[in-house]
């Protein structure tokens, strides 16, 4: 698979100078990101964006590893025949109009696969947005160049997405708000040849990838996927599309995928210690919790024991309700922890879990109260993880994450933050928390779901 991720020479079939077109975007993205030789292929032009254009791939003089194809579906078989003559090793077909549109498109896709196998070519796609590698950075896709250039935010989570347009808009949104960084994004569309197992095997060996996320509408080889997942030291998160009859019907018209028996698939994923998500943003929230490498201790009581530090009794209650739903339990705080927290609180305020720390904040100010509260709860041997509620505001409520977390000692147990407040002020607290490695959320339910996911792989 290296010729997809580290190609020596790329042909862009369907490159065009036409403004706002996919062919122009694709070529522009390559010029901005790829340092090797680029060869536009379009018989209508002698030159495109300052590069010599070729009528056919086979007429390119230099050797090339990869061709990226964005031409009408019916023209693709001839392009593949030409790539075989040239000795191209890999082809990414970003065009649509294949198996996802019906029998005629399926026949066309099968024809492409036959040509590719005969010519020794691996096919990626069709009906996809290709590959993005933020570390290099390579953008082998027709996403809007300006949007992608502004959004690029390298990280250690890699995506395998059985979709096209979703992956472009989704990753730009994710990276653009600096919530998480991505390593590699692989949009595989109809996966006529290259599939999730091929890419899983590659990413499991990829040093830049710590967590693998997949959006899949079907599994090409369930046994192979199961074996890869069970042998993986890296966490794997899956969002399965087509779980209901109506969703399965929609998935067939999207990527021609047969969704299969969801209950059976769900049981297999659990056996393989794969964490399942319910939507796209939950999938990525779970992944960014997993990538932090928190120390996960196994509670002798079975259920993970969580402490809640809050400025609001009501939000502590709501958090407790969500914890019950996700199999978490309220930690029984040690005597030493209770005494320490009581010493910072007014005499009339008893300490229980959830810890309502508003009186201590009024007495000492939020910085000292949070600093001491977080430190004491994190150090408690009866606490496996900590959920902290923060209001980010003006004046004394503008909190420095480094300060309030300065006494948290290694090994670091999971500490997740639920953060509210005015948008501009909240961002000044959220971004430093994220930069320091502490996942921060705007929804209590999502905060608790991520906390639960951190312990799922620990179950034996």
Would you summarize the structure shown here?
This protein has 18 helices and 20 strands. By secondary structure, the protein is an alpha/beta fold. It has a seven-stranded mixed beta sheet, sandwiched between helices. Strands 15, 16, 17, 18, 19 and 20 form a six-stranded parallel beta sheet that branches.
Number of strands: 20
Overall 3D geometry?
Answer: elongated
Number of domains: 3
Roughly how many Å apart are the termini?
33 Å
CATH superfamily of the largest domain: Succinyl-CoA synthetase domains
The radius of gyration over CA amounts to 25 Å
CATH topology of the largest domain: Rossmann fold
Please count the helical segments.
18
Average per-residue pLDDT, rounded, comes to: 91
Based on secondary structure, the structural category is: alpha/beta
**Spatial sequence of strands, sheet with the most strands:** 9-8-11-10-12-13-14
CATH architecture descriptor text of the largest domain: 3-Layer(aba) Sandwich
């Amino acid at each position: 698979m290296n010729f997809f991720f580290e190609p020596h020479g790329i042909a862009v079939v369907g490159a065009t100078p036409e403004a706002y077109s996919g062919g122009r975007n694709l070529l522009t993205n390559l010029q901005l990101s790829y340092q090797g030789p680029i060869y536009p292929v379009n018989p209508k032009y002698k030159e495109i964006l300052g590069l010599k254009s070729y009528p056919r791939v086979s007429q390119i003089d230099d050797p090339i590893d990869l061709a990226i194809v964005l031409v009408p579906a019916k023209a693709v078989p001839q392009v593949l025949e030409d790539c075989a003559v040239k000795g191209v090793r890999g082809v990414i077909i970003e065009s649509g109009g294949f198996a996802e549109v019906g029998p005629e498109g399926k026949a066309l896709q099968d024809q492409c696969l036959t040509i590719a196998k005969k010519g020794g070519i691996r096919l990626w796609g069709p009906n996809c947005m290709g590959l993005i590698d933020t570390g290099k950075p390579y953008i082998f896709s027709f996403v809007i160049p300006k949007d992608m250039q502004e959004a690029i935010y390298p990280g250690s989570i890699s995506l395998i997405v059985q979709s096209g347009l979703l992956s472009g808009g989704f990753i730009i949104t994710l990276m653009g708000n600096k919530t998480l960084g991505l390593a590699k994004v692989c949009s595989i569309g109809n996966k006529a040849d290259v599939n999730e197992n091929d890419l899983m095997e590659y990413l499991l060996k990829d040093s830049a990838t710590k967590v693998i996320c997949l959006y899949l509408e079907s599994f090409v080889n369930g046994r192979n996927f199961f074996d890869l997942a069970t042998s993986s030291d890296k966490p794997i998160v899956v969002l399965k599309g087509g779980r209901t009859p109506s969703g399965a019907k929609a998935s067939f018209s999207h990527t021609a995928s047969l969704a299969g028996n969801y209950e059976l698939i769900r049981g297999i994923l659990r056996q393989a210690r794969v964490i399942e998500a319910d939507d796209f943003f939950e999938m990525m929230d779970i992944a960014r919790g997993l990538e932090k490498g928190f120390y996960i201790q196994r509670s002798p009581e079975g259920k993970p024991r969580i402490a809640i530090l809050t400025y609001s009794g009501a939000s502590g209650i709501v958090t407790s309700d969500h914890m019950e739903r996700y199999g978490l339990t309220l930690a029984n705080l040690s005597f030493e922890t209770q005494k320490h927290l009581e010493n910072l609180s007014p005499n009339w305020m008893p300490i229980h879990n959830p810890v309502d720390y508003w009186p201590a904040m009024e007495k000492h100010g939020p910085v000292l109260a949070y600093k001491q509260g977080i430190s004491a709860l994190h150090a408690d041997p009866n606490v496996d993880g900590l959920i902290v509620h923060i209001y980010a505001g003006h004046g004394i409520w503008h909190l420095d994450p480094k300060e309030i977390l300065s006494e948290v000692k290694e090994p670091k147990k999971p500490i997740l933050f639920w953060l509210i407040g005015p948008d501009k002020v909240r961002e000044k607290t959220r971004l430093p928390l994220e930069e320091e490695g502490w996942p921060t959320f705007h929804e209590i339910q999502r905060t608790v779901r991520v906390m639960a996911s951190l312990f799922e792989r620990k179950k034996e």
